[in-house]
């Protein structure tokens, strides 16, 4: 490794408080196009695959602690943290593009920057695991440090995920959005009955939300399919929650 390259990596590690060595960061910032012409230096592909899963866990863990919602809500919010465009923007902000080793004629775009960030988290996980430290704790510290501004914006009380038009028309997603925006407890959904002959089933689903130790609001939905009964129940519960907000005595 050339001296200038090593100095750049050391400076980056110190600036962003990364719990890894120069050797690990060197691999994390080596694009496959560089590895092809310089086989001695491993590419970051394996670390990128690992880091992708690590960032998924970190983002879901953080969202679980800060937002109420269901799986769909968390999945949508996760994309606001670790999508290629968000990671690419973060990579540019921290100057990662100047560290990536690449083959001649290869351009660095959001995807390459995102891969490098994922590889860095893969490196943090593996390096600390190999020396016997708690890998997840170190990954979490780096996540909260590097993603500080992104996470801070998301904690804004009025934050609502950018749902697609398809999701906006789904009562279940509308309910999740309302719960998230108003910081209400998570709702529960269950199938409470299934009646009728096989060719003419009637399913009844129920959504419930416990607003306090003395207040539970619920709504039922009946339909010929489970999914449709859930949507009807969600629509009814959303209507009741909005009415209850206007009239607390409701």
Automatic annotation (TrEMBL):
Q: A Gene Ontology MF term for this entry?
A: ribonuclease III activity
Q: Which residues form the RNase III domain?
A: 23-125
Question: Has UniProt tagged this entry with the keyword RNA-binding?
Answer: yes
Q: Which residues form a coiled coil?
A: none
- SMART domains, sorted: DSRM (SM00358), RIBOc (SM00535)
Q: Where is the DRBM domain?
A: 170-243
InterPro entries, per the entry? dsRBD_dom (IPR014720), RNase_III_dom (IPR000999), RNase_III_sf (IPR036389)
Keywords carried by this UniProt record = Endonuclease, Hydrolase, Nuclease, RNA-binding
Name the domain of life: Archaea
Query: Is Repeat tagged as a keyword?
Result: no
Q: Which biological process, per GO, is one annotated for this protein?
A: RNA processing
Q: Which residues cross the membrane?
A: none
Which protein is depicted?
Ribonuclease III family protein
Its source organism is Promethearchaeum syntrophicum
């Amino acid at each position: 490794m050339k001296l200038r390259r090593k100095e750049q990596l050391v400076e980056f590690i110190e600036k962003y408080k990364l719990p890894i060595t120069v050797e690990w960061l060197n691999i994390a910032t080596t694009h496959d196009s560089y590895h092809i012409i310089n086989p001695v230096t491993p590419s970051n592909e394996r670390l990128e695959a690992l880091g992708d899963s690590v960032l998924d866990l970190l983002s879901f863990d953080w969202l679980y602690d800060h937002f109420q919602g269901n799986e769909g809500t968390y999945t949508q919010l996760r994309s606001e943290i670790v999508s290629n465009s968000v990671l690419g923007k973060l990579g540019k902000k921290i100057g990662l593009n100047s560290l990536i080793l690449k083959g001649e004629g290869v351009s660095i775009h959001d995807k390459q920057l995102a891969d490098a960030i994922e590889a860095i988290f893969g490196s943090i996980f593996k390096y600390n695991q190999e020396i016997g430290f708690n890998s997840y704790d170190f990954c979490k510290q780096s996540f909260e440090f590097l993603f500080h501004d992104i996470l801070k914006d998301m904690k804004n009380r009025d934050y609502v995920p950018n749902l697609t038009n398809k999701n906006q028309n789904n009562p279940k997603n509308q309910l999740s959005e309302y719960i998230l925006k108003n910081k209400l407890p998570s709702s529960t959904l269950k199938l409470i009955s299934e009646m009728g002959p096989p060719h003419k089933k009637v399913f009844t689903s129920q959504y419930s939300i416990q607003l306090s130790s003395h207040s539970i609001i619920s709504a039922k939905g009946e339909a010929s399919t489970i999914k449709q009964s859930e949507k009807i129940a969600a629509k009814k519960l959303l209507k009741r929650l909005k009415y209850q907000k206007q009239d607390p005595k409701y």
